[in-house]
Amino acid sequence: MRTEAASAGFYHSPGWNRNYPRLQVLTVAELLEGQGIEMPPLRQVSQTFRKAPKAEPDKPVQQTLPGT
Q: What is the torsion angle, in degrees rounded to the nearest 10, for the CA atoms of residue 42, residue 44, residue 50 and residue 52?
């Protein structure tokens, strides 16, 4: 499984000029030992992507009963 994850390649973070594995496989034991996933710092996310405008839901349309 780790071989397949490694074959997915790397993501290059232009903000940090560093490569991160696209797929990472961790066991529960590794997580409990404190090992985490390799990823760019979270503060970069808000700088990389602009927030999309909030979508407004479509207004419901009242259906008429047949024969009225």
A: -10
Inside any domain, residue 21: yes
Q: What is the pLDDT of residue 21?
A: 92
Distance CA(44)–CA(66), nearest Å, equals 56
Q: Which residues contact 21 (CB under 8 A, 6 or more apart)?
A: 5, 6, 8, 10, 11, 38
- Do the domain assignments include residue 6? yes
Per-residue pLDDT tens over the stretch 11-36: 998 888 999 999 999 999 999 999 99
- How far apart are alpha carbons 60 and 54 in whole angstroms? 18
Biggest CA–CA distance in the chain, Å, is 69
